[in-house]
């Protein structure tokens, strides 16, 4: 919101520079900056065209004589199509500086002397979209007599210094000049003075030309209208136009400009309609019917197919029968807009539900000044006053013959907020020791009514400050106006809280560091994905969580697995010839149970590896990653968790997008904690990636499992004894089951078992495989004998024969 200093002077005394004001306001919590509109421009004056004649050597140029307040008139050649005699115009004299470094000099144009330039608003720095439409392709003509030689920038208000206040969402009361005057006035201990708007009582009649009905009262707490008859629509007075374009609003006509002016003055949007264009003389505020069409000047007029907005049942509209007059709180339509031919006008002042306005503006991409204010909130105590002010301005500038009484569709009583607090508590929360008188003075500066009873204070907040509701708001106002810069620095007292991570966070960081230590790269992906990606690895079989208002179709659902995001990372890199990929992500997935709206967040860690796991070197050869490489990474990760559990890998074909012959579910003491496997060839082809292996582990489950009690032991004094075991077994039997059985029957001295040979092929029985295991026995307390080892070894072999029907080789 740009605050005009000249406009502000109508409410409070202003004696400071805009730099000082911007700095002072910023210290109260609203970031502000100074704006100098006319910097770098000079020698721009008002000129009066006293004569005009065609250029003898051009069919589009004219030779004008212009009074610029000097001893004699000057001659200027002008090519504007709208130049005419007796106009008051903007003249750039010889030596004038214009925007973008342009400089005007005397010269000859096709043989005729030209001593300056007659300018349009856009040529002196006003953006074209804020220039009145009548002057888009020509020079600007003052709508009233201005003394020749007057500084044109002053006459146009373009030398008005401004304070640009970066309004926070909770301070929408400063989106109007009156609210801003209260804020700035409180900063400088000045109370603003306002002139109450009024209407010529002799013109007010009890009109029955129009009726109003509100269907959805929950979304429309206030809706007031007035009608004005026999108005003369034309150009607005200069003082109003210059205040509008300084606020980045294009002047249109004296009715629409009055509505926009009141929006800036009060912060209350006003809508204007042509009464004679209404299909029915009955205005209804209702929800749109699905498929209804609505067209506004905010639509894309360059594309005829896009000029209509298709409404749905969630849109709130102002209508006259089937005619849509406007999208409530967002934009007015073109079907009943006010033009120069309009004779009878309807003015609307209303309050709409902020959330409904925001969603409609976002849904149809129609955000503007009005919707911005309704979204943040408007003062329902000023709805009627704003309507009176708009009516007053239209009557003054368009000369209405009749003005109707206020027609009330619905009105909600504007009640001030009453907050109770204690002076001592306010001081305690601020860390200050202000007197009751000082605090009461601050409330008075803000325009609040406060009553003091010993230590208790009761503060009545006017409706313009709807952001205040609790005692903490009082504390904030006191400390803002007192000045943050006046707070004294103090050292903290009391017990100190030591910083550090929670046990779960430390556990998560440990897992992350383990994978980083194994050469993997960490990535971070969006938590949102499309429906297919959410379905691809929904191993936990959870319900899908869809956003109500997704940004795009690719970001509709909360993820149920980290794998799809990692697959996209692999595809992205391989598409750019980066084929050796080793990435992981530690993040949350979302598990939503039946009948529950909000999903549960569960932390997972997952990885994806593709390409070579070892590269060519002078002493090594490149090696492409396989299942066992990735399994080794997972085993290393699990070993560092120090969990007191037996981890098993069970082959599975239940995960459709993983290879059925190279996938395993990871089990810890009978509980599933994740999976590991190769992506299915069809899935790899679909995503245009090479062979890729993935794994995913439930971090929350791992953290909740019992940890192993680690104790330091001395190095064993006695030697170990090893035995090798070769067996022939059915190919469908898993090695893990055999290893488990060996440990179960190997006795207390068996300390290690590992597989060293796998063979399946020639000279081996069909559907069988040959496995070789290395068993290590050791007694830490005594020398282990061969006899003891042989007995244990025999028990192992007997058990394998009985349980798995193996052949000992």
UniProtKB/TrEMBL annotation:
SUPFAM superfamilies: Anticodon-binding domain of PheRS, Class II aaRS and biotin synthetases, Nucleic acid-binding proteins, PheT/TilS domain, Putative DNA-binding domain. Mg(2+) binds at residues 467, 473, 476-477. It comes from the Bacteria. The keyword ATP-binding applies. Residues 716-809 form the FDX-ACB domain. The keyword ATP-binding applies. Signal peptide: none annotated. Residues 414-489 form the B5 domain. Belongs to the phenylalanyl-tRNA synthetase beta subunit family. Type 1 subfamily. This is Phenylalanine--tRNA ligase beta subunit.
